[in-house]
Amino acid sequence: MQRWPVLLFLAWVCFLFFAGIGLFMSGFLLTRIELASSSSCSDPLVPPPWERQSLPPGSCWAPQRFAKAVLVIIDALSFEFAHFNPAKASPLPYENKLSFLHRLATSQPHHARLYRFRADPPTATMQRIKGLTTGSLPTFIDVGSNFATYAIQEDNLLAQLVQNGRRVVFMGDDTWEGLFPKKFFRSYFFPSFNVKDLHTVDDGILQHLYPTVDSGEWDVLIAHFLGVDHCGHKHGPDHPEMAKKLTQMNEMLRSLVDHLGNDTLLLVAGDHGMTETGDHGGDSEKEVNAALFVYSKTPLFGTSPPEEPEAVPQVNLVPTVALLLGVPIPYSNIGEVMAELFSGDGDAVSTALQQLSVYHINAKQVDRFLHSYSLVAQDLPAEQLQRLQELFSGAMEEHTQLLAQVQGETLVPPELESRLGSLISRFQLYLREARAVCTQSWARFHPLRMVGGCTLIAASCLLCYVASELAASSGSFYRSCLLYPLLWGLVVAVLLGLAHAFTQEGLDLLLVLSWAAAASQLGFFWHWWGQYPKRARLVGSQPPLATVSLRQRLRAWLRLAFPMGILLFRCGAMFSDSFVVAEARVAPFLLASLVMLLVGKLHWDGRLTVPEGPKQQLLGFSSYRREIWYLLCLVAMLLVCVRLSGFFHQCREEIPQCRPSLFLSPLASLRNTRAKNLFYLLCVALLAGLVYAVRSWLRHYGNLNSSDPLVLFVRWCFPLVVLCIACYWAVASSADDSLGKLQELVQVAVVAFPWAVYGLASMGLLLLLCNPMTVFAKDTRESAGSIVTPYLGVPSSEVDFLHVIPQIYKRMQESQKSRLERGSCKATVAAYGLGSVYSAALVIALTLLGFLLMLLHSERLSLAFLLLFLEAFVLLHIHTRAKGLAGDAEPFSVPWYAVISWLLAASQFFYSTGHQPIFPAIHWNAAFVGFHLDHSTNLLPAVLVGANTFASHILFAVGCPLLLLWPFVCEMPSSQRKKPRKEPQEELQEVEEHMMEMRLRESPEKFSTALLQLGLKYLFVLGTQLLACVCAAMILRRHLMVWKVFAPKFLFESLGFMVSSICLLLGISLVMRVDCAVSTWFSQLQLRRPGARGRGPAERRSGRCDSSETASGSCCGGYGGCRLPSPPCLWSLPSSTTPCFLLWEHLTLSSKEKQKEYARGSSGFWRPVGPAGRILAPRSCGRRCCRR
Ligand SMILES: [Zn+2]
Ligand SMILES: [Zn+2]
């Protein structure tokens, strides 16, 4: 078996895809260019010289109105939270809690006002802090760096304050520490990342807030509270905990106002809102709708507040606060001043003049920014810039004229007022349009890289297809299709590296890798083309097309066309935003259609009707009919699974009528204790059911008999893992306050139980890696000893019987043998579970992974995981039955429909485990399963959240080799059943049918090729979906929905591709590891075999028994040394001699029925009996020969 070439080839193909993804991403997801310039007091911007002299000391650009400012940021303070509606009779937990703000606003309308504070998406806290301090728009890609906060390089409000000698004191969310390192005069940071912790940050701030305010050693104080946001994440807004939190905030504001002086401006702001489930990150109305409250003890507003609170974009806070505090506006600001805060208490004209002057400063600053920005970057459209320029110069001209007229006092107040008003609205128009232009086009694409990435991915897909077709036919496949292309790629990489070394230019690693990938692809296609004549000859050797009937040709074409048609449809759907939005329903629909089409095609081929004729009726009639019914039942079961999986969906805000599934929220958020307990019991019961099902499956195939560490682990530690998960769920879902003194114990348990599961699961995976054999070998070649039992006394449990009964039978068998012919039947090894040794390892690995992934999800999603396992199981059976009924001639090739349905199920369960390809839907809680405090690195939380998000991708990719193995495990020789059974030879053939997975070992070359083909097909289908997403993102990059739908979809799809491809490699490696272990096992058996040393090299090479050995029974003792035309070795390994085995894979002795059946063949304890009562070892042969 060629292990390394297969893995290397697949790894190389993955690398090609990764290079394509990287190249495309670098062209598609560019960040906005950050300008290094910053504003300063001495800028020759504004105001006009005669005004500059009149500026009070310590003021820049505009006169300072407040000496001090307090900015209270209450994270995720939605407008609904801050708004007070006295008419509301029964307010929700989050309504009418900030009554103090309402009282201030109504009792002092000229001092206080509430605004709607419109956040720009993405509404993640770090992006919002950036926006609130730079006055600019953070771009899409910043979302990705939310785990690692980086210092803000751009000019910002804090930098301006510090530059102008203000003392800035900060307390709260430690995100600020990373964004503004060493900027604060004094700071109190508290860990922000643990969203389950509602109080640490808030209590920390409250401890320091009032002493700091009273000390007076500050000019600007920023306090960032996180409790409300975390409460939203943990419980959702509609929860009593939220009411408590908001009441606490209300009290805090009340005391804070008492501590403030007259020269202090108070701003209370939310950085974003939250959805109904308490999440944020996107751009839905609820997420962008935050609150802003402004208050000062001196009058601020000239007019009374409007009926409905005004909406203010968040960037507007930056220029407003800068000018109120008398510092320059940050260089990159695109916000507009909030004019009513500059009205003061003068008459209408002086108010308008004051407002005009701040608008004038603001407009000049924005114009300067746009000007220098357009010099560096070309992403703002030229015609729009032109229009903005015209607007600006028009307003400036009028401003100059008006000022001259004001100086000359040629205008009377009413006219002056209206002229001032119209000029202000011209400035407003300019500022708003400028902001709109920036918002629209703040993503700079790199078309060449995008096309390059797209081409690389497309070529990789083609390569996968070609290679999967070619792998089976070509002899020198790995040399011409792997080695040479790799050399090509290496040469190009080295050349580029040398060129870099000589030219001393900056080396772009991504570009070098992409060129290397492209070169190796070219190498592949070149060598493939070189082999083309050979391929043509191969085709020519097949029967000419004329002899094949049209119907047959159509069928052959349809065989490929219908799964490909489904795939094509799926890819086409990626180009429509509504289909992407509704993909949660599209994927299961396509899966169901594919399976129905499969059944339809089988029917069309006449495979679903029982064959006519007396002969067939006599023979396989009933069993064939049973197979058909079985298939139809499986299809019905699949449809039920698909239907049920719809209960676990997360919602997208694009579908307003959608209600998120109840199962998504953690049990802790459930207030009904009875329902909570019921759900808890259900989840634990089903988890135990899963363990039971896996163990029974393993027992059925005899993989639970051995006493190897792995098998013992499955027996004892699987229930232990379930116990740990159940305990963790119990602790995590208990109400916080109901525990009282136990609280500390709970804190420990919440961390300890997940770690126990992590530890046990990794131990299991390690055991699986070290010794993946689950085979119980019973060597009867040596004398049978006494019955050994690891348990003292009389065996009591089933497990004990499992251990003891085979030994009893062994004894009986020994005595039976000695009564027959001594010596002839001695060399026998019975191997339990050998026929399913590969799948058993995969099933164990999948179960362990399933435990880990379930732990990372909320409790009730474990139901979705069980559904996933069930559906995968049903799909495998459908595939096996369909293959059997279709009479597939190629047992080693996995048909396309199987691969595509497998992947459709993977996407279906991405949605059915509560995920959506949008950022707010990411389950960030997963980062804290087993961790109490903040993470020290970003790697671990990223891995945990990634595993949570791509759980179904991981499970299906690791389980992908099962598609190849399953038909062998459930061997169903339906074609044979139609044949008459007369001759012993025929019966012998039947025995060979039941070699199960050992058939794969019989032809190791075919096995490795089959694995390679399966991997390539899987990558092809994955790659095609990815290609569709990439093309959609590229073509529709100016689409209204690009940042909302296509770009996140592309990101999730490409990450999913990476995760899937790596897990696919791991799954295939696991199969190869098992293969290694099986080889070692055989060689050890070979060494122990009595008389093995005596064999000549010739026999060893042939691997078959010669007649003398069969006679002596040393080789094929299992058959009593019968002399048959073909040596009755069950199977053989090439290039090594092999002992023959009875494969007792079905013999588990666990069910009474089988024992009965076993006992019925009274003379032959030799006869293991299959599940359908089929005799595995030919009785007649055994008797006849052994008596001879
Ligand atoms: Zn936030
Ligand atoms: Zn949050």
Strand order of the largest sheet: 4-3-5-1-6-7-2-8
Mean pLDDT: 79
β-strand percent reads under 5%
User: Which class of secondary structure composition applies to the elements?
Assistant: mainly alpha
Q: What does it look like?
A:
The chain has an 8-stranded mixed β-sheet with strand order 4-3-5-1-6-7-2-8, with helices on both faces. Strands 9-10-11 form a 3-stranded mixed β-sheet, with no helix packed on it. The chain is globular, with a radius of gyration of 37 Å. β3, α7 and β4 form a beta-alpha-beta unit. α16 packs antiparallel against α38 and α22 packs antiparallel against α24. It contains 43 helices and 11 strands. The C terminus is likely disordered. The protein is mainly α and 1188 residues long. One zinc ion binds next to α5.
Main features:
5% strand, mainly alpha, single chain, 3-stranded mixed β-sheet, 1188 residues, binds zinc ion, disordered C terminus, 8-stranded mixed β-sheet, 58% helix
Topology overview:
Elements (H helix, E strand, L loop, with lengths): L2 H26 L20 H6 L13 E7 L4 H4 L16 H9 L4 E7 L6 H10 L22 H7 L4 E6 L1 H5 L6 E5 L9 H16 L4 E6 L1 H9 L4 H20 L4 E6 L15 H4 E8 L14 E3 L3 H8 L23 H29 L5 H27 L4 H28 L6 H24 L6 H27 L5 H22 L1 H9 L9 H24 L3 H5 L1 H22 L9 H5 L2 H25 L27 H28 L8 H25 L9 H28 L5 E4 L18 H22 L9 E4 L4 H20 L5 H25 L9 H17 L26 H11 L1 H8 L3 H8 L4 H4 L6 H10 L4 H5 L1 H32 L6 H47 L8 H6 L4 H6 L28 E3 L8 H9 L18 H9 L1
Parallel strand pairs: 1-5, 1-6, 2-8, 3-4, 3-5, 10-11
Antiparallel strand pairs: 2-7, 6-7, 9-10
Helix pairs in contact: 1-16, 1-18, 1-38, 1-39, 8-10, 9-10, 13-14, 13-15, 14-15, 16-18, 16-38, 17-18, 20-22, 20-31, 20-38, 22-24, 22-31, 24-30, 25-26, 26-27, 26-29, 27-29, 29-33, 29-39, 30-31, 30-34, 31-33, 31-38, 33-39, 38-39
Bound molecules: zinc ion (2 copies).
